[in-house]
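Methods, example record. To illustrate the input and output format used throughout this study, we show the complete record for TIGR03086 family metal-binding protein. The sequence lines were provided to the predictor; the line carrying structure tokens was produced by it.
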Amino acid sequence: MTHPSLRLIPEAVARFGDRVHAVGDDRWNDATPCTEWTVRDLVNHLVAEHLWVPHLLAGETLAQVGDRYDGDVLGADPVRAWDEAAGRSLAAWQDADLSGTARFSFGEAPLTVYADQILVDLTVHEWDLARGSGQDEALDPAAVDRSLAYARANVTRMAGLGILAPPVATTSTDPTVQLLSLLGRAV
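The corresponding predicted structure is encoded as:
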């Protein structure tokens, strides 16, 4: 049986890509809910992350990949950079055998965890990009549900790594609001 996140990643990549394509020329320097990132910085983060995917799924180590994706990976055409990185990432996920493990900055983990993390990142950053660039903020319910389950089970560990803002209290029963709040977004 295919891992649930692996089934959802292609659609999540497409949705994020649709958002990238819809960013107006005058919006790339606008702020996002990720307080230190502009729209361009946010897209740069996702492009770099998806450039890493083929390497990690092929069993390469962090040292082997090195710093080649540090800094600006967007160049003069952020949309083209996203499309190219997304295409390589999707091809790697399509052929992925998630039975193994990989070494990440936080330690060794199953590739199924990596798939979950990629889905969470795509889903939450889709909302960040929509909010920062003035687009519709609706998210896919299936991606939200899977991401929320992962976030609930791992929020303490993720917060300990310093990669998230502290959770924002909410009384909402809406899964999207719960996910975003859990991952430090004020909705």
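Annotations derived from this record:
The helical segments are 4-22, 39-57, 62-65, 78-94, 111-133, 141-160, 175-182.
Strands lie at 101-104, 107-110.
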